[in-house]
Design a protein that fits this description.
The chain has a domain of 131 residues: Protein Transport Mog1p, Chain A (3-Layer(aba) Sandwich). The strands form 4 sheets. It has a 9-stranded mixed beta sheet, with helices on both faces. Strands 14-15-16-20-19-18-17 form a 7-stranded antiparallel beta sheet, with helices on both faces. It is α+β, with helices and mostly antiparallel strands. It is globular and about 75 Å long.
Length: 659
């Protein structure tokens, strides 16, 4: 989930304020001459920045080539002698024989997404994108580990407190009050909120390049990061070798006003895709009618549910309303892996089965606190609404089906939504030139996902139409998280490796598109032998499961299937391995063994505990000489006994050291 490169705060705002739209309408093909824009550059001072090395804010394996610290920049780049702020930066060094001197800088979404703390986890995922190059990961100004970070815990707490509030108008007003409380605190703490915007952010990107000593860099930006990339291309083109932008937000668009239509269009694309798929249409016929009827019914008569935040195990009373159903659809059109289950979730609710939709609502809670919201509001209120009025939003809403809109009163939406927040957020609206389309000849790759609910494919086409040296690809079946797609990463890596050539993209045609989850017989559990020469053991694993790493498998029988299985052997004491495992799993205090027994080749300690979301987990741990072994299984409550007997115990018995 953490790979989302666009803060889901945007979805919260759009759903509560304007989420909705009619069926997709034809979009004219954009051309470079459609608006005949000219690049406009605001004069800025030469960046003044220094890099101060500091310990990494995460565990660094011994010898890992990573360097952390802070790039110190002016709070206002046009006042270089004024106050300074600190940008948290990690450089994951490339030590390959074919090392290239131009790194890739990751531009995160949000605005305000926290990224730096996950730098080491991000680097392997993005490895195809930075071939033989350093990877620079940083928290943008006002976000995450950068100083200051403009956090709004008041908003997060209010969101949790309002989960069981049935009145959408009351929710709108209470969230507004929480944002104002955050504003008052940030102002009282002395922060200049007007310094946190995309123009200053772009100057930071250039300052990081200079402070770290790179002549040229490659930019990768997703969603708000794509907008930041465009601003950096506009203002500091001299330091940029190539650019990859995904889930593209054009400079000229308003994410808040136009977002009402893009969300609705994406929902309609989902419904149309199911209707066009024989298996999905057979399992879930008349899906649009069913969805609209479900939203109306659930808004009229909400259903009490209990949701659980898997990050901390905390459960909350909540109401499943029609707005919440729509919010879940919009949210999980972000995440490609979950799209296939959405038709079933709609039908289940319509049939009075709430488990799957409750699971989606619970999963949304994990996404709530990924960004520093003070940064979000400063950016939105500085630039997103330029040239837009409340009447524009009301006119958009008037053209949309009511089922694809928040049920809150439109007047409340104007007074307490983003327009109302921005009237009261202490920043000045930027000059209109920041909204002009980007014209550039910098080599640029533009990637979009078919079902993206906020930055749809036509946005990427629009931006590519103004870039004379660009390549555009749409990924079938993909949501907002484009870079999570293997094909997208391979195209991006090929392009950055040689941006003078069109990248090979045969994988796009081979991408099957969305494959919906439909009812069917569960596949039979079949075990097959497994041998790991490197780690020195043999055993059995389930055949046909998705291999995440050797002997590390996920079943993936559906988009939300949590079933997961691991075999492991590593040098060291079992107690040390157990401490590492319980730390990674967040088990505090560590569980006690429920039994010990000789099974197969070892004497095992057996542990049983519950993972967030109520899924049972089983762990067996053994010691043999200087090596420790474990077998680990996560299952669902209704399948636990069958998988324990059919997979977990046979795997424990089969585990053996290699001769």
């Amino acid at each position: 989930m953490k790979k989302l490169l666009f803060g889901l705060m945007i979805v919260v705002l759009l759903i509560s304020a304007c989420s909705g739209g009619a069926a997709p309408t034809a979009t004219p093909e954009p051309t470079a001459t459609a608006a005949q824009p000219t690049p406009t550059v605001e004069p800025t001072a030469e960046p003044v920045a220094t890099f101060d090395e500091a310990p990494c804010p995460f565990d660094v394996p011994e010898g890992a080539p990573v360097e952390c610290g802070f790039v110190v920049v002016p709070e206002d780049h046009n006042a270089p002698d004024g106050p300074t702020i600190k940008l948290a930066v990690a450089v994951v060094k490339d030590e390959s024989d074919g090392h290239q001197p131009d790194p890739v800088i990751l531009l995160s979404g949000g605005p305000g997404e926290r990224t730096m703390a996950n730098a080491l986890a991000i680097a392997p995922t993005l490895a195809p994108i930075h071939p033989n190059r350093d990877l620079i990961v940083f928290d943008q100004r006002g976000a995450g580990l950068s100083e200051p970070a403009l956090e709004c815990p008041e908003f997060v707490q209010a969101f949790f407190d309002l989960l069981d509030e049935p009145d959408p108008d009351a929710v709108q007003e209470a969230l507004f009050d929480a944002v104002m409380e955050c504003r008052d605190r940030l102002v009282s703490e002395g922060y200049n909120l007007s310094a946190y915007n995309t123009v200053q952010n772009a100057a930071d990107v250039n300052a990081i390049r200079i402070a770290l000593g790179y002549d040229h860099v490659n930019l990768y930006g997703g969603s708000y990061g794509s907008l930041l990339a465009q601003a950096t291309m506009r203002d500091y083109p001299e330091g940029i070798r190539s650019v990859v932008i995904t889930s593209v937000l054009p400079l000229e668009k308003s994410i808040f006003v136009e977002g009402s239509t893009t969300i609705a269009n994406a929902v309609m694309r989902l419904l149309d895709a199911c209707a066009a798929d024989e298996a999905c249409d057979s399992a879930y016929p008349n899906l649009q009618d069913v969805l609209f009827a479900t939203i109306d019914q659930m808004n009229a008569d909400p259903v009490p549910i209990t949701v659980t935040n898997a990050l901390d195990g905390q459960s909350y009373d909540a109401l499943l309303t029609g707005d919440a159903v729509l919010g879940n659809l919009a949210t999980f059109l972000y995440i490609t892996q979950i799209i296939p289950v959405l038709p079933q979730a709609i039908y289940d609710v319509n049939s009075g089965e709430y488990e799957l939709m409750t699971q989606l609502s619970s999963t949304r809670l994990q996404l709530l606190d990924l960004i520093s919201r003070g940064m979000t509001f400063s950016v939105l209120c500085t630039e997103d609404l330029i040239g837009r009025t409340p009447e524009d939003l009301l006119n958009v809403r008037a053209a949309l089906p009511p089922q694809l809109l928040s049920s809150a009163d439109p007047e409340f939406i104007i007074e307490y939504g983003t327009f109302g927040i921005c009237e009261n957020w202490p920043v000045e609206e930027a000059d209109p030139w920041v909204k002009e389309p980007l014209v550039s000849d910098i080599p640029t790759l533009v990637l979009e996902g078919e079902f993206d609910p906020v930055t749809p494919p036509e946005y990427g086409q629009l931006v590519a139409g103004y870039l004379s040296n660009s390549h555009f690809f749409e990924l079938p079946g993909v949501g907002h998280d484009v870079i999570g797609n293997v094909c997208a990463r391979s195209i991006a890596g090929a392009f950055i490796n040689d941006p003078t050539q069109a990248p090979g993209a045969a994988c796009v045609a081979e991408t099957p598109g969305v494959v919906f989850d439909v009812p069917g017989e569960a596949p039979e559990l079949v075990l097959e032998p497994f041998t790991d020469e490197e780690r020195g053991f043999s055993g059995v694993v389930p055949a046909g499961w998705e291999e995440l790493a050797p002997a590390n498998l996920a079943r993936r029988s559906s988009a939300l299937d949590p079933t997961y299985f691991v075999l492991e052997a590593s040098p060291g004491a079992a107690a040390e391995l157990f401490a590492i495992l319980t730390g990674q799993l967040g088990l505090d205090p560590p569980p006690d063994p429920v039994s010990s027994a000789q099974v197969g080749n070892f004497t095992w300690d057996f542990y049983s505990f519950e993972r967030p979301g109520g899924n049972p987990a089983d762990l067996a741990l053994a010691q043999d000489g200087e090596k420790a072994y474990f077998v680990y299984l996560v299952s669902t409550p209704d399948e636990h006994d069958a998988l324990y007997q059919g997979l977990f115990l046979p795997a424990v018995e089969a585990m053996a050291p290699l001769e």
